[in-house]
């Protein structure tokens, strides 16, 4: 197959880890007979410095004409005191909006050889394999009004939690679709004992479940879900929830297996292209030193192969290679442990390619 991939390395270690992931994609392409065309676009601080805006129109166009987008990370101390419209993070919000990315997917996978870097005991974290699906377009983040007001002469404030039914439907349906190819369980997280929006969410989940008799649906209140994630994470398969709950729970889920440098993500739209990126940021403290862990981005590339190109075998080959490299004891600094071999970003990439 032939595919066009828009590559937005961004800032800091974004450039280093994206370079590694592309080399791995090229190696997979060679092995399986695919042609991946990589076309580069600017985003974030680099775009601000060179063209004066965090997301130039050319980058948006490039992404829209591609089959998938691979993003590194944006931001850094250099741009922190800029006015809001000149912040690198604006570029990220804008590309999500431009591509209509409505669902953010974050898998949390257990790597046996990294059990030591988890804050949880091995018996608790062992065999965790879950997928958090977070709604991205609605909820408290975008509801209007959101402002300071005066009420009876006193300072007050209002934020609005607004959802359209169809926004709930599409993300919950996606969760069920994804559950079909997994163990077949969806946990829908809400606060239905308090919020009207959650009662509609639950209603929608029940309706959609009727179309998926092979998938089990469970409802869980968000406070309980936060607790269950650390108490017994293996009970979860696919978790689906609205924007704010998902923001909080996905960060919680991301520490279960240890390192930020290991975790991939995908953001999906209705028509594509989808966007893939590591969950970590630009890590300015280790920028340019060949220290960054490239595996989160490499695993994001694997998600791209599976979700955008339907290349399951190819995706698995990458995931297997990553597992084996860890198994063999190779570690970047963030996942380093006693008795292992510490390697640089580029050495880690070489190991993955060699194992492929
Ligand atoms: P952002 O605001 O962009 O999320 P942040 O400061 O919250 O950025 P990161 O940039 O992800 O978070 O970095 C947090 C810490 O984790 C840093 O100290 C960084 O060195 C470390 N870190 C993040 N990603 C990696 C990686 N891929 N490899 C090694 N260390 C990493
Ligand atoms: Mg952060």
From TrEMBL:
GO molecular function, one term: 3-isopropylmalate dehydrogenase activity
Domain Isopropylmalate dehydrogenase-like: 4-352
Coiled coil: none
Annotated Gene Ontology cellular component terms: cytosol
Binding site for Mg(2+): 223, 247, 251
Record's catalysed reaction(s): (2R,3S)-3-isopropylmalate + NAD(+) = 4-methyl-2-oxopentanoate + CO2 + NADH
Reported cofactor(s): Mg(2+); Mn(2+)
Keyword Metal-binding: yes
Record family assignment: Belongs to the isocitrate and isopropylmalate dehydrogenases family. LeuB type 1 subfamily.
The name this protein goes by in its record: 3-isopropylmalate dehydrogenase
Organism this protein belongs to: Cytobacillus depressus
Gene (UniProt): leuB
């Amino acid at each position: 197959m032939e595919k066009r991939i828009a590559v937005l390395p961004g800032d800091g270690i974004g450039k280093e880890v994206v370079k590694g992931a592309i080399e791995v994609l090229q190696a997979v392409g060679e092995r399986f007979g695919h042609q991946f065309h990589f076309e580069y676009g600017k985003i974030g601080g680099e775009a601000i410095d060179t063209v004066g805006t965090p997301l130039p129109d050319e980058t948006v166009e490039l992404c829209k004409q591609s089959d998938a987008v691979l993003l590194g990370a944006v931001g850094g101390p250099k741009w922190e005191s800029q006015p809001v419209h000149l912040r690198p993070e604006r570029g990220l919000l804008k590309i999500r909006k431009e591509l209509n990315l409505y669902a953010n997917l974050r898998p949390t996978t257990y790597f046996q050889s990294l059990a030591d870097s988890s804050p949880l005991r091995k018996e608790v974290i062992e065999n965790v394999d879950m997928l958090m699906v977070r709604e991205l377009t609605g909820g408290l983040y975008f509801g209007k009004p959101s402002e300071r007001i005066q009420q009876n002469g006193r300072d007050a404030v209002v934020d609005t939690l607004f959802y359209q039914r169809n926004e709930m439907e599409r993300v919950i349906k996606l969760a069920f679709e994804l559950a079909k190819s997994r163990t077949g369980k969806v946990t829908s997280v809400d606060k239905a004992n308090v919020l009207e929006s959650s009662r509609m969410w639950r209603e929608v989940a029940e309706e959609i479940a009727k179309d998926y008799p092979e998938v089990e649906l469970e409802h869980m209140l968000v406070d309980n879900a936060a607790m269950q994630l650390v108490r017994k994470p293996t009970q979860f398969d696919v978790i689906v929830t609205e924007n704010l709950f998902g923001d909080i729970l996905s960060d919680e889920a991301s520490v279960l297996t240890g390192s930020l440098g290991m975790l991939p993500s995908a953001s999906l739209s209705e028509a594509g292209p989808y966007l893939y990126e590591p969950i970590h940021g630009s890590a300015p403290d280790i920028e340019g030193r060949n220290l960054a862990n490239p595996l989160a981005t490499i695993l994001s590339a694997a998600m791209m192969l599976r979700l955008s190109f339907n290349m399951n075998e190819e995706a698995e080959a990458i995931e297997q290679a990553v597992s084996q490299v860890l198994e063999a004891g190779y570690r970047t600094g963030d996942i380093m442990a006693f008795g292992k071999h510490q390697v640089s970003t580029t050495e880690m990439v070489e190991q993955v390619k060699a194992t492929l």
